[in-house]
Amino acid sequence: MSEILAVKKLTKYFLIKQPGLFRRKAVYLRAVDNIDFTVEEGETLGLVGESGSGKSTTAYMIVGMYSPTSGEILFKGMDINMLVTKRSLNVKKEIAIVFQDPSVSLNPQHTIRQILALPLAVHKIVPKSQLNDKIEELLKTVELPAIYAFKQPRAIGVGEKQLVAIARAIATNPNLIVLDEPTSALDVSVQAKIINKLLDLQKKLNLSYLFITHDLSLIRNVANRVAIMYLGKIREIASAKEFFENPLHPYTQMLLSAIPVVSEKENAVKQKKSLSKGEIPSPVNLPPGCGFNPRCRYKMDICLREDPIIREVSPGHYVRCHLY
Amino acid sequence: MAKNDLLSIENLYLSYRIYKGTLKVLNNVNFEVRQGEKVGLVGETGCGKTTTMKAILRILPEQAIITGEKISFKGVDLINAYEEELQYIRRKEIAMIFQDPTSSLNPVFTIEDQLCDVIKFALIGNNRSLKKPNINLKDIAVQALHNASMPDPVRILSNYPFQLSGGMRQRVCIAMALATERNLLIADEPTTNLDVTIQDQVLRLIKRLVEGKNISLILITHSLGIVREYTDRVYIMYAGSMVEMAETKELFENALHPYTLGLFGSVPKLTGEGISQGIPGSLPDYLNPPRGCRFAPRCSKAMEVCQYGVPPFQEIVPRHYVSCFLYVRRQSNERNPCCQKTH
């Protein structure tokens, strides 16, 4: 397996207030702060975290919707640290994204044929004469009837809309798909169908996924490796099995113990109750030292002074905490 | 109706008249809550959970037509009640927490204005002829926020909703609902928009408050995990009817209805054993719902009888009710000859 995506020291600050007459320094929101991770070919990297932790900002930088403040994004060794408008067509073709809410991410005035035809035409995937066949084939891949090509998004169910969004993402034969909470707008019975379809496609087309979600039970079933973000920083990365069976960071332990589960069997593997307290602080006024210290139950003096660095505790298991 | 029933709904039908025809939303809903009990109501989006609750409080839009047999709360028939009676029940008896705390708080008033308004309405009603009350509303408001584990309640009172985080806003809504004495709290997906750690905190808060005051709770959610941890008894709802009801433990060990089983299979598990194929199809169109069982078009075990007969909501195992022909057959083979042809 080789790396398909490598992110190095990626940082994104949003300017909130300009320096002015009375303010010497500008005020920044630190959405993503110095993160490193890689996605291997054919694997699923789960990126989890609460809202406001910087998951989506990371995704948007990878697909080029935001330009990073600093850091590198390497795609197959190429530097793609730039906005999507400046990227070459070849790179754009290789990276696709599926957004959270398909009701908003599909143009309501276009038919599904138009929605699917656009990426095919832009990247000249097929000659014009074969366009209809290709669209039919795409719909077939996601198990939608061919007649849907002539419908508009409002005429179909929300789960089917997400399938169209997935069909659009795979239209250009990409290598990497960024899935930004693809099922959080859906019911569980529909979610199951979408997830199975995604896992199917991954095997068939050898896709790599960057799977962003806040649902830990879901990530247990889809990801090979899991990275957890809190206040713009990655706190822990490990293989999915290791992450759920032997979580090390106190934040991971707190999150895992808060999940409501449906059976005794699951309760047995769940973390012991460590009562969750507090809320995620604002990324504008970060607490000094480790960002998690106001909510941490193992808080030590050093946590208030110094931000821990990320260390490899066991092979492939990285933690950013003073405890280790 | 049993003696200790607080709320009971029998054979409730509800439809909306719209331009295209009649949306037959609720179809034979049976539901009851006893004093001090925590009841869960689970179902997917659009299955009528919130509509049922709105029917109890009678806060439905004008186009809604209720043709039910009975909604009774403490013996008062809410279907034919006068507006004054309903107002009294909304003031003193039933409180509701809505799904999205952002849209259920008014953005242009401070928390104090909104909280005191609710307390005033609960204590003295809308009657303007009464003199200014002799009670300190602000004290009650502070106490209510304090009960809802709100840090620094006095400062919060002067804040506007946008200055609070999602979890804090939901705490304000809980404080609002439980500021005065109540008998029933309806929590309509109180944690859907919140993160998992905040969800944990909010649900524990609700549980602590209702148990402390012996209030009955109806917890509406689409998460089976939440129901398992926080309720005594569960109703599973699909397309406007109750399909299964049992005590929580019984339901999670021995679910019977194909829909419930499908739901259980679709939930991603922490043990990481993969996800089943889900339930094919989608909710039926309420304009033209299926003639028989409303789940039949999506059911893998559907029989001929399911297409034209509506299954009764029957007690299959003691205190475990299911609405499905699969289980009716066992009891009354002779009376339902149509069932024998199938499979």
Describe the structure concisely.
Chain A has 324 residues and is of the alpha/beta class.
What does this structure look like?
Chain A is of the alpha/beta class. Chain A has a single domain, classed as Rossmann fold. Chain A contains 12 helices and 12 strands. In chain A, helix 4 crosses helix 5 and helix 6 runs parallel beside helix 7. Chain B has 343 residues and is α/β, with parallel strands linked by helices. Helix content of chain B is 34%, strand content 22%. Chain B contains 13 helices and 13 strands. In chain B, the strands form 2 sheets. An 8-stranded mixed sheet of chain B has the order 7-8-9-3-10-11-13-12, with helices on both faces. The radius of gyration of chain B is 22 Å and the shape is globular. Chains A and B meet through helix 7, helix 8, helix 9 and helix 11 of A and helix 8, helix 9 and helix 11 of B.
CATH T-level fold name of chain A? Rossmann fold
Proper CATH architecture of chain A: 3-Layer(aba) Sandwich
Q: Roughly how many Å apart are the termini of chain A?
A: 29 Å
Beta strands of chain B, count: 13
Specify the helix fraction band of chain B.
25-40%
Largest interface, counted by CB within 8 Å of the partner chain's CB: A-B, 40 and 40 residues
Largest sheet of chain A: 8 strands, mixed
How large is the count of helical segments of chain A?
A: 12
- Beta-strand level of the residues of chain A, as a percent range? 15-25%
Uncertain residue ranges of chain A: none
Task: Give the termini distance of chain B in whole angstroms.
Answer: 38 Å
Q: Helical segment tally of chain B?
A: 13
Quaternary state of this entry equals heterodimer
**CATH-assigned homologous superfamily of chain A:** P-loop containing nucleotide triphosphate hydrolases
- Structural class from helices and strands of chain A? alpha/beta
Mean pLDDT across residues of chain B: 87
